[in-house]
């Protein structure tokens, strides 16, 4: 048996934790022995979502890192997104159904398995943007 733990890496904004996030992280966890989650910086989150995040990157990392299924949560980098990959050296990198693989194509060259999860949990109900809209309507 291999003594090396199979490390799974994923990332996202995780601004308002909801059941869709928990579903996604559980699916990621099934792909390995250790789950590391990269939290988008505030600048990256704003660029991706078109709005400032409600919680700071450090607060989001604290929340995600305290989930039982997550072994480690770290804040990513604005300058070099591959930096964390080079540091963690994951066996698997997972993208969600709404995430772009884009620049991470070079992961395959490093013999890292890239997985895109197409399944999601009640996408139209549990989406941070929709949750924010519903709160504003009340």
Task: Walk me through the structure.
The model has no long low-confidence stretch (mean pLDDT 84). Helices cover 33% and strands 17% of the residues. It is globular, with a radius of gyration of 15 Å. The protein has a single domain (7-137), classed as HUPs (Rossmann fold, 3-Layer(aba) Sandwich). The protein has helices at residues 19-29, 42-49, 57-65, 82-88, 128-137, and strands spanning 7-12, 34-39, 72-75, 92-95, 113-116. The protein is built from 5 helices and 5 strands; from the N terminus they run βαβααβαββα. A 5-stranded parallel beta sheet has the order 3-2-1-4-5. It is an alpha/beta fold and 138 residues long. Helix 1 links the parallel strand 1 and strand 2.
Tell me briefly what this model is.
By secondary structure, the protein is of the alpha/beta class. It has five helices and five strands; from the N terminus they run βαβααβαββα.
Low-confidence stretches: none
Radius of gyration: 15 Å
Output the CATH class name. Alpha Beta
CATH architecture: 3-Layer(aba) Sandwich
**β-strand number:** 5
Main beta sheet strand tally, sense and closure? 5 strands, parallel
Under CATH, the homologous superfamily reads: HUPs
**Separation of the first and last Cα atoms:** 55 Å
The overall pLDDT average reads 84
State which percent range the strand residues make up: 15-25%
The assigned structural class equals alpha/beta
| Spatial strand order of the main sheet | 3-2-1-4-5
Number of domains: 1
Strand/helix succession: EHEHHEHEEH
Name the overall outline: globular
* CATH structural fold name: Rossmann fold
Helix content: 25-40%
Total of helices:
5
């Amino acid at each position: 048996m291999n003594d090396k733990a199979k490390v799974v890496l994923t990332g996202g904004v995780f601004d308002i934790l909801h059941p869709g996030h928990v579903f996604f992280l559980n699916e990621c966890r099934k792909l390995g022995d250790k789950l590391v989650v990269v939290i988008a910086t505030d600048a990256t989150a704003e660029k991706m979502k078109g709005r400032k995040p409600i919680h700071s990157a450090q607060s989001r990392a604290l929340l995600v890192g305290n989930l039982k299924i997550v072994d480690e949560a770290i804040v990513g980098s604005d300058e070099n997104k591959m930096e964390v990959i080079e540091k963690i050296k994951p066996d698997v990198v997972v993208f969600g159904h709404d995430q772009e693989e884009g620049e991470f194509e070079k992961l395959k060259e490093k013999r890292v398995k890239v997985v895109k999860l197409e399944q999601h949990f009640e996408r139209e109900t549990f989406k941070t943007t929709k949750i924010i809209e519903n709160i504003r309507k009340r």
